Amino acid sequence: MQFTNKFKMTKQQAQFFAKKNLVNLVYATSKFEGTHATLPQTRTIVEGMSVSGISTDDITTIVNLKRGWQFAIDNQAPYSLAISNEINRLVAQADSLDPGHIRTVNVTLDDTEYVPDIPVADQVPELINAALVQDKTQTESLLDLLLLMMRSQFYWDGNKRTAFLTINYLAIPMGIGIITVNEQQLETFNELLAPFYETNDGRQLKEWLYANCIHGLDLA
What we know:
The chain has 10 helices and 2 strands; from the N terminus they run H-H-H-H-H-H-H-H-E-H-H-E. By secondary structure, it is an all-alpha fold. The chain has one domain (11-101, 117-215): Orthogonal Bundle (Fic-like fold), CATH 1.10.3290.10.
């Protein structure tokens, strides 16, 4: 399968698209954590107003994701591991034992017996750089990075959130589209994610993400 870039936007156009869809992006990413806020309630929280009937934990998750997405959209610095660390600090500060830092203990994952190795902090940049090799399209490289970060579980918590925001931090200045899984796609995503964790064969998940989860401005 050819993972050709689906969109060709300028950085400014991509930022405009992301900002216009900020609430949808926050809402979609919050569903990784099983939040109960509806899309209108998420909009109210993102706009800084109070919402009744939503737990403090859910509100905190949404507010932190808003900050994480704004950081990814603004994108002022070249990418390095420090960017992903900052994204994790922002989105997982209420969930993680050590937000913004590479984990140093084992973790377990839902719906799978796979246990990721404890990452060696000094080796993480090399792993990331290997996913971003130059002989692939930008889109394929970012999908490979997404799969690497999710399966490796570099952080104590918030790994899917951090992985998706990281690849979009990179995708926005490239203008190749926003990569995200919406609420309706979440069941299929999880069904494909579990066997990927078990086998490290990400072809089916990667092809599904490419076919269904990249969005942008069609300027043709």
